[in-house]
Structures are given as C-alpha cells and as structure tokens.
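Forgive a beginner's question, but would it be possible to get a protein, spelled out as residues, together with the matching structure tokens, please?
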Amino acid sequence: MKSALSYIKNKNLIFVVVTAVTLMFTAAVFSCSLVMIRTISKMAENLVGDMLQMEAERCVSCIDDYECLPWLLDFWSSNAGDMTTDYDELYKLESRLADFGDTDLLIDRTNVSEERLKKLEVEEQKVFADYCFLASRLEIDTDKNARVPITTKCIRITDDSEFLFFSDINSEYEDDAGAGNILISCPLDKDLSEYYKTAEQNAVSGEKTAVFRTKGAEDKLVYCIPVIMDGNTVCLFTSSADSTLVRTTVLNIVKRILPGCIFMIILVAVILVLILRKSVVRPAVLLKNALQEYSETKRSEDIPKNLGGLTEERNEIGLLAAGFNDLAISIDSYVEEIRTNAAEKERMLSELNTAREIQMSQLPSDFPAFPERSDFDLYAIMDPALEVGGDFYDFFFLNDDHLVLVIGDVSDKGIPAALMMMVCKAYIRGAVGREESLAAAMEYVNKLICEKNSLGMFVTVWIAVLELSTGRGTAVNAGHEKPVIRRSGGSFEFVVNEHNLALGAWENEEYEERSFTLGKGDSVFVYSDGVPEANNISGELFGAKRMLDALNKVPDLTPEEKIKDMQNTIEEYVGEAKQFDDITMLMFTKKA
C-alpha cells in the first residue's frame, strides 16, 4: 500500500495522468461536437428535403389535371415570347374566351382535349394557352410559402432540356429577362440529367425518389416529380433550395452549444497550463538559462549551481539536467581535443604545402623552356590529385643537339610517391649520358630503385633521346602509357610497341630501345594514366578514345595550346567528380 501511494505521489505520474486525462477530455469534447454537428446537419437536410417534396407535389397538383397538358407545354415553348404574364390580364382573357364560339372552354378547361383545341383558330388557341398559363401561375403562387426560399421549375423533356418557369418570387432567375414569365433555356448538368432519368423510372415503378444534392459550384438540394400521361413523361416538376438552409440551421444550434464548449476548453487549458508551469516550464527555463550561460562562458563547473538542484530530482527532468551537465563536461574535453588536432592538422598542411612547393620546383616550369631555340616547341604540366603527387616529367640537353624527354608515374600517391618521384628523377638525370645507351641507363636506374625499395613501389617511365638536327631518336617504355605521334598534316595516332617492366618491378629486367624519326611539323604527346582514367560523377572513364578524339579535334595547335585544351576537355568531362589520380602531360613539336 505504501509503495502504491509513493508511486502516485511521484511528480512524473501526476504530470502524465493529468496531461493524459486533459487531452482525452478535450478530444472527447471535440469528437462529440463533430458528431452532434453531423447529426444536426443530417436532420436539417431531411427536413428541407420534406419541404421540397411537399412543394413539388403541390405544384404538380396545380397542372397535372389538364387533359391537354402536352399541347399546352408545346404551345408555351413555341410562343414563349408572346405569352401574357400579368395577373391583371386574367379577367380580360376570361371575357375574351367567353366571346369565342366554344363558350365551354373556360368552364371545362381541364378537360379540353388536343383535338378540340386544334379546331380553334390560332388566336383562340393563344388566348386559351395564356389563360391556362396565368391560372396555373396564380394557383401555384397563391399557396406558396414565401418564408422558405424554394425555387420551383417545370422542365420539358426535350433534346435541349428546356426549363419552363412558373412565377417564383424566390427564383434565382427573378432578375433575368423572361424570368417569372414562361421559358428560359439552358443545358442541364450531367448529374442532374441522370437524377431526372432515375426519377422517371421510379415514377413508373411507383418508387419514391430521394432528394439529390448537387455537386460543383452550386450546392443545392433538389427534388423531382415526373408528370406522366398515357405512360409518357410530359414534364418534370422540380423544387430546389440552397444548402445554406441546412448550414443556417446547424449554425444556429452550434451557436447555442459553442459557449459551453469554449468554457470547458478554457478551463481544461488553464489547469493544464498550471501543471505544465510547475512541472515543465520552470525546469525548462532553468535548463535554457544554464545552457545560455554555458554557451557564453564555456564554464561547465558553473552548471550544477545554475540548474538550481534539478540534477537531484528523480524524474525525466532530473535525468535531463544531469545529462546536460555530463554533456557540457564532455564538450569541454572534446573542444580541447579538437583544438589540439586542429593545430596538428594546420602544421601538417603547412608541411604538405611546403612539400608541394619543393616538388613542383623540381619540375621544369618556365616556358618557353629554351627561348633561344626556334627549331622545336615544348610544353608540359603536372596536376597532382593530392597536395603532392607521384607523377613527374623532365627534359634536358645532353649536348647542343641531343634533347632528353622523360615522363613517369610512381605507383603510389602522396608524400611517399613524391619522395620516390624525386629520387627516380635524380637517378635518371645521373644515368642518361653516362651509360653507353639509353637502355643501359634505364637498367642502371632499375637496379638502384630495386636495391633501396623497401616499400615495394615501382615507377612507369617513358624516356626518349632525340637528335634535333636529324630528327632521329631512341625511346624506352618502362611500363608506361603508349605515346601518341602526329605526322605533319596528319592526325594523332598511338605508337603500339611492346613494353618493358616498370622500374623497381624486377631487378634483372633488360630494357629495349625503339628507334623513331620526327620530321618537320611532327609532334609527340606523352601522358600519365591519370588522363585516360579520369572519371566523371557516374564512374565512367575518360578513356583513350576520347583523349585521341580531343587531340584530333584541332590538331594544328602549339604544345601549350594543345595541353591546355586537353585540360579543359578533361575538366568538362569530370565535372564535380573528385580527381582520382595525378594528371601529367608532355608534348614536343619539331619545327625545323
């Protein structure tokens, strides 16, 4: 028992129970109000429907006893513009009918047949039709309940769906030309047409037609009674009322119960606010103030004092306050760690930038490279994927007539590759010219790399020595990409030769030289695998074919123009994709 009482006194339970009861009561009030409104709306709609049915039946009784009704409807339709519509003319028409040869027309008008009417003169027919129309209108309007805005219509069943109106003081057509007279023609709504067909079928079978609610711009209730003579429907009497009748009734009732509902809701809201203020708002304010002060001072040791003892409460608020205190302590520790890491990262970035500057300074970057020479043109670039890269290029003279061209790619990336690149570049510079042949120089460099290659990296290299006076040259391809040559006036084409292994792959590899000749206007283009293997955001490679197409797009460009054009082409293809590998290109053109 004591355990149960202690549990009930717990602030958590009180808050949850009171809040749940308040919300359930509020929901119940709203639900009952909605059910009541819907019920009242249905009752009001049924009441208006009964009124419409009574009005339609009353109107039918004023006209369905005419034996010549079909003839009258046809005549009224055909002569609508000439019909007499003033009630004061009714007695004049009576006296005119008395002057005709058939004096029983007035007395026996409901039993007059079409055959009998057809024997009359046209003027006599018009007077009779006018009289019947005014008499029917007068009978309909005399007993009308003007307090209820019901519109009565007589609808002819024709292809054009003509509307024949008797006088109706509440008609929405009252201000229209011809309203209250006899005829206004307009197309029927599709849904109404289907409703009228159903009413006809029900009338034949003796079933009662329900009230129809229109859809669309006008919201109305409609009731229809067909007038059937000799098994055929000659017209339809419809009564309609705007649905505002239903809404007005519902609103009147709602106005009566609304003050009570509002009072109950306000009362519940006040109770809920008092509970929330004590159990939630005050702790929330303390938490907010403590958080704000901590964000300004960054002093986690002041949080327990600012929370005003909330950390000692045994509820969710207490757990939240204790968690906030622990979080602030963790944040202080984490911020200090971030500061240390940021300083270390900044130091590393600074060192990487220095390494990049050192690496790039080792590559020839001043162009034109040999401004005193006019017999050739030369240009090269290296764009690393990281701060430093493993690609490199080089060109230098062995003597005034022999030029060395080099391009290489270390198998790794980053700082290790950059160090290997600089070592390999230095080895090549030292070996070429000292050894008896280009192949021997590459074998010497390969042995040096294999002896001191603890990381197992290798380097692909294409190297050529070109005799400028004759255009003859020798080249060694140590696992590098196929070079591309363009003969003067021709297009760029791949040079397909068997490759040797990359430097550092196997110590005893024997390298082979390939001879070639460049004439005036010929060019050679070499590149690293970062060019064909550049990929877009979908992972599709740029490829050797696209590279060759880009070279041949405008073949007669200088080496600098050609390489910059290739750079732009690759950038457009790659788009927003991150650069995956170093991109290096070198192009040589013999001008004389």
